Amino acid sequence: MSYPNEKRPHFPLAEVKAAARGRWPAILAALGVDARYTDTRKHQPCPACGGKDRYRFTDHKQGGGFICNHCAPDGGSGFDLLMLVSGYDFKEAVRAVAGVLGMGGGQPAPVLAKAAPPAQETVRDEAKRQRLAALWGECEPWNGSRLIADYLHGRGIPYPEQLPISGDLRLHPRLAYWHAGRVIGRFPAMVAVYRDTAGKPCGLHQTYLTVAAGSEVAKAALYEPRSRQRLPAKKMQAVGAGSLTGAAMRLFRPQNGLLGVCEGIETAIAARYISGVPMWACGSAHGLKSLVLPDSVRELVIIADNDPNKTGIQAARALQRRYSGKLDSIRIWQPDGIGTDALDVLAANTAKGYLKQ
């Protein structure tokens, strides 16, 4: 969209969001998004990273919401979906939606949807890789201060500083938290690098922290400035669409071909503390299910979350099936309590005095 010989109009985000509410399927269709991606009745492949049924359009609160278990496990808005499918940045997406709605006066402005980027690594992917590498370079060793150790201790892990956690876990002293195209604050963050099966960095996992009264370190409580809706304290950044599929955060070094895998970072560290098995974290049930193991792994231990909907055990069994007959042994462990994981088991045992703090 161009505005020759006149100043480009400014569209306040709140006004565009209000005007778009309840109209997202039509807006997205006008901008070239296939109608199947706005069908709320079924799960299907993600328009960005594929898969089988990891994507669903929810239109949450009529805001164009969607969830992809890989690209956006915490969910996204209609603007996020437009950026994911068509390659817009946030400002371009807002302008495009405003154009479809005819904001700024007159009839709806003509909008040409951008072509989706090709599946292979693009120039944008390379730029993202460089930005993430720069962010990683700003981080400090995870045990260079007490912050991460105190956070993990507060989650129920005794003496985390005594564990041989790898350098793939770091601390960022003041990491920007971006939301809706702007920074709403800077916080210390626990940052872990995702590596693909060849060991190449392909993304980052960020857990934003805060130091509360009494010097207690916990996950940051973050809220959308206007609506006061809770925002996720954890974020994942991938180099490109699909680049985290098969990848993991290598928190401990495999020993003699033995490796344990699970979903969360804290769960992985707890499982290592309990069992002594070197652990990798996959970030989510989908990450666990899709993990690609190095050829050096011969014995696999899968630590499954005991989710009420059985997502954790289903992901563990899917990984087990993929490697059945290819490894010397595969074992699955899951806690008994519904809604618990290895971290909950460790924290409960510590609280009961079975383990020393």
SSE arrangement:
Elements: H1 13-20, H2 24-30, E1 44-46, E2 50-57, E3 66-68, E4 72-76, H3 78-86, H4 90-101, H5 123-138, E5 140-141, H6 147-154, E6 169-179, E7 182-195, E8 201-211, E9 217-219, E10 222-223, E11 230-231, E12 234-238, E13 248-249, E14 258-262, H7 265-275, E15 279-281, H8 285-290, E16 299-303, H9 311-323, E17 329-333, H10 342-351
Helix pairs in contact: 1-4, 3-4, 7-10
Q: Using DSSP, what is the number of strands?
A: 17
Low-confidence stretches: 1-8, 109-113, 115-120
Shape: globular
**Element-by-element helix/strand order:** HHEEEEHHHEHEEEEEEEEEHEHEHEH
Into which percentage range does the β-strand content fall?
15-25%
What is the tally of helical segments? 10
Structural class: alpha+beta
Distance between the termini: 61 Å
The percent of residues in helical segments reads: 25-40%
What is the gyration radius calculated from CA atoms? Answer: 22 Å
Major sheet details: 7 strands, antiparallel
The average pLDDT is 86
